[in-house]
Each structure stands twice: as C-alpha cells, then as structure tokens.
## 1
Amino acid sequence: MICPLSTIYDFGYSLIYPPETNLEDVRENRFLNFGLRRLPEPLGPHNPFKEDVAFLGVILQRWVRHIENIVPEIGPSFEGMVHKDYEKRLTIHQALEEFERICSCLTATQMNQTVTTRHWKGNVI
C-alpha cells in the first residue's frame, strides 16, 4: 500500500518515509523494547509498522478484550494483531478491516448487553 505520507512517531526517534514508500517493504533495525511488551525480539531488520500493530494490540486488548464473553470474535482479532509469527501478524489495514467487520456484525443483543468486566490480562478477565 502506498500512502501520501508515511510516518512513525516515537518519542526521541521519529521517521518519515517518502510518499512513494510501500509500507509493507519498510525494514528497520531499531530497538523497540519488545521484552517490555512480551513480544519476541525480531532477528534482523523488521517492519516497524507491523511492530506498531503488535504494540497497539498489546495495549488495546487489556482494555477491550474483556468483552470477549459478549463479542467472541474480538479474541481472535487481537490474536492476529499480536501474533508471535511476524508473517502471520495482521497489518494495520487488516486489523482495521477486522474491527469494522466485527462491529458491523454485532447483534442488538450484544449491543445492549451490560458489561460487567473491567480489563483483560494474559487470558484472565
């Protein structure tokens, strides 16, 4: 996918790529503190955009995945975002499409169900 302007914002280390950059082809070697997020450190160059998806997934699933008892599809969606196999990990576009698909299929019962949980951590609600 080619975007008008491709950017990674990171405090102290931001990157801007030329407009013609194919985001799927970008590779970097920078340290991203994978251990802090319980993700495997990539061996060699990696795509920082795919890493951002994993980091976003780690953060969001703590505050969203607890509704998995109401919206079961949300679990596999997060699994795709944080997949340990780099090649199987969702891109940001795939993650957004999956989220939109899940939202569009919610039933009235799901939408009206009372949420009684607060957060999710490591398969525990």
Note: The beta strands are 6-8, 15-17.
## 2
Amino acid sequence: MIEKHPIHPQRIRKLPGQFSWVDQRLVRDRYIESCSPPAATLYLFLLTVADSRGLSYYSDASIMTRLSMDMPTLDEARKNLIKIELIAYERPIYQVLSLDPVVHGAPPATARTLDKPVSIGEVFKQMRDALHERP
C-alpha cells in the first residue's frame, strides 16, 4: 500500500463551515473563473476522490479514462489548477489545497498564539531561549 504524505502540510483542507460539499469560496473568491472546463472537471474529480487531507493518487491513465481526456488535456488542466493554487502535485500524489489564505512566516503550531495572555516574564524567557538557540 502506498503511504501518502501531504505535499503542503500547512494547506490541508478542512470541511467548509457552510452547508455545501464543495467550498463556496471556489465561486465567491472567483477561482472558478480561472479554471478551464477540463481543469474544473479535474478539480471536481479530485475533490470527490481525495481523502480527508485532500490527498489522492489516481494515475494519469485512470484519470484520463474516467474523465475522457487525452494526455495534453490532462496536463494542461493540472497545470491550470496548480497555477491558481487549487492543487499541488508531486507524482503520484495530488493534494487538493485549502482555500484558506496562506500566512507566510506563520509561527509553528507549538508557538504561543497572540490570543492567549502571557506574562512579561514568559516573554523574556522565550527571548532568552531563542538567543541561546542561535548558532
């Protein structure tokens, strides 16, 4: 059995808050307008077959058969979806990406968040620890 790992772990999709199987932001945020018809078809297919983390590993041959596409059409559809950041692809894994905005330089999950109170002493301790960790 193939072990699947997210290509972009920070972009694992979550079920949308509204009642809809397909995230309404696909239309509301105008992603759909950037999709060619074959790209939209491929995206719907990948949404349907992906696991809970948005991952699937259907082969090109299987996708082409199921969607009645030839290789150039599939290749262009895949490039279209990658360009508009709806999917990531590293053969043989597809990842349907979250539509949540990406926060570049976000702190790791173990870091404290700003919405929790922290004592000034804890802030200084974290600063000292960070300074001592430098090479």
Note: The longest strand covers residues 87-90.
